[in-house]
Amino acid sequence: MSTVQIEIDGEKLEVQQGSMIIEAADEAGIRIPRFCYHKKLSVAANCRMCLIEVENGRKPMPACATPVTDGMKVFTKSPLAIASQKSVMEFLLINHPLDCPICDQGGQCELQDLAMGYGSDSSRYVEGKRSVSDKNIGPLISTELTRCIQCTRCVRFGTEIAGIRELGMTGRGEHSEIGTFIEHSVNSEMSGNVIDVCPVGALTAKPSRFTARAWEVNALESIAPHDCIGSNIAIHTRRSDVMSVAPCENESLNEVWISDRDRFSYKGLESSERVYKPQIKRNGVWTEVEWQDALNIVAARMHETVKEHGPEQLGALASPSCSVEELYLLQKLMRGLGSHNIDHRLRDIDFSDQYAAPLYPRFDGSIAELDDQNALLLIGSNIHKEVPIAAHRVRKAAVRGAAVSALSPLTFTYSFDVKQWVAPLTTWLNALALIVKHAAQKTAVTADASLVDIVNTAAGDQAQAERIASELLEAEKATITLGYYALTSPEAALFRALAFELARITKAKVLLLTEGSNSAGAWLSGAVPHRLVAGHGIGDAAGYHTQEMLEKKLKLYFLLNTEPSFACANSHAALDAVKNADFVVSLLPFKNHIMNEYVDVILPIAPFSETSGTLINAAGDWQSFAAAVMPKGDVRPAWKVLRVLGNLLQIDGFDQESSTDVIAEVKRELIHAQADLSAGPWQMTENLKAFNYGNDGDLTFIPQLSLYSVDALVRRASDLQQTADAAKKQVYMSVATLERKGFTVGDSVKIKHGGISALHTVAVDDHVPDGSVLIPVGTAAAVDLAMPYRSVELIRD
């Protein structure tokens, strides 16, 4: 783009043509006061605080809405500019309450800062001040709308970034106020960002309200541990407590935004279920013990199990959000004892293509590249509720004109224009094969031999398949995304194979929205049963994957930062396995009443805010973080616990003194193996089979995983559990299914599937296919349900 020469306050600058004066000034480090302007939002120019003088201009001009021109001379500190800015400030303060001593924004308030520079110590206004009644817009955002200066940043955020216009300006003149058009809460999964964009104290964080002042807290940079983006965050701490979380700017990942899940999950740290000292269950009663005693017992039982039953009777299940350091030491511990039974793929059902997997699942590009795609295909992804920041990136592409299509067995709500192809469970894999078929025909490319049969016999909606194939082929940049419903499908291997084949034919890229924050790191560090660190294969010595570990009912289970009853696809099998084990050790910051039935030793490990480590996101970005606060009570970082267990079991190679030593060891292993860390496709594999969804007249169980049920910390974040998303605990079916089964809305039912679930309420949602029932998983009510996508029976209570 061409440039122009301008002058600001006597400083000559070369800036991009078409940019606004305020942008040119910011780039040059010249500060112009502003309220309504935000670099990520459209220009509103309604606060007028950025009025400046332009040579030969007839009047002061808003710097945010005045484009630069060649030879322009701008004065930001001239008498006219200063007088204009002071006049605007006087008007803004007319109705603003003197709340600074009790306002949460005090000390970090843009109005407070600018009032010091442009305000007066006395007011000429003698009329009665305006007041505005506050609105209850949900459990996450507190309102003090009398403080509002009508900058409309929050309105523009909802419309332009979140894609949901939940807040708006109503009334005229002095009666203008921000609110919801109808009385309801703000439910966007990124709603908390209005707290950051609000320049005053009108919108503040309800969970941290009145808990700390800005000057009392320290901000430490960290990484959000809940999804595969790895958003950069700032953890605000006071002494040893986490007070709040805010975004850290990273243009390549989350820009300046974070999801509500990343912002408010810290409230789970305050859960009454936190454990602060090792506990051992003796005669059904939990007893607190010293670390040395607990670790000696665990080491002795592991050694005893190996000696009496063989190493194949040891099994380790780990959260995909554990750090690289933790997962590396866990697999090293297990393999040091001779067991390859370790896995992080807890919600997966189909493992048939694991030997065809690349070194690790990595997007062949950056997260920021999603903005610039010309075509995107979302396969089985309710992307807003899975990875909100990825949804934001896709929305940006859609707004810029990208052709976005979605293929799934359910209808989802998107905040951008998308053409949805909703196919029944029994045929949605066939629909993807049909798209591959059309792409192959258009390019005269033959599908891979392992997929020829399924591709050639694919039939269905030809127009939809032809359209999607054409969009991907015609796009200069195209991405195919696989989400939760594809990756946890009983046909996941075929979905991956077809997606990568479609990418090969159309020259698109594939993005896997994997579970947790470190699935990529888990593969690299060897937390899978068939590979060592750096992807070294182990042939016939491969251990059991998650489902096999549960089906085999092993003698000893080692659980790292996970709760099987909530985290495993087959909750019934998971509970049955751990309840029948001889010994179960749980490394988790929490305990719950279900754990009382199967855990023998609890080793309380530090949550993400109290430990250090490294996470690898879906694009292969390595991000390390440090502890924001010291571990509470007698809690220990998981990597230290694993290291000491390795010492007690006399396994070589457990002499690391810091997490930095551990990650350095992992990198040495990768270098030694000459591992290619670039993205690679899933290789084709023979004998992949479609799943038979046929039912015997009962309902097919489709799982629904709330974004606030994904891990132990989020499940205990009380404020998130009060949101509309978390409140969806009903079982949903279509009207036709409801009538055929003789239920009525509001009926209380139990679900018989493996075990018997807790009570659920029946609700109607015509987005659910006929003959199916949508059941929330990862919740206490769904504990003891067996494998999804099978037939279930609903029993009226």
* Proportion of beta-strand residues: 15-25%
Structurally, the number of domains stands at: 5
- How many E-type strands? 33
Uncertain stretches of 5 or more adjacent residues: none
Distance between the termini: 68 Å
Q: Main β-sheet, in a few words?
A: 7 strands, mixed
For this entry, what is the oligomeric state of its chains?
Answer: single chain
Structural class comes to: alpha/beta
What is the strand arrangement across the widest sheet? 14-13-24-23-22-15-16
Helix content: 25-40%
Alpha plus pi helix count: 23
CATH class of the largest domain: Alpha Beta
Radius of gyration: 28 Å
Enzyme class: translocase
GO molecular function, one term: 2 iron, 2 sulfur cluster binding
EC number: 7.1.1.-
Catalytic activity: a quinone + NADH + 5 H(+)(in) = a quinol + NAD(+) + 4 H(+)(out)
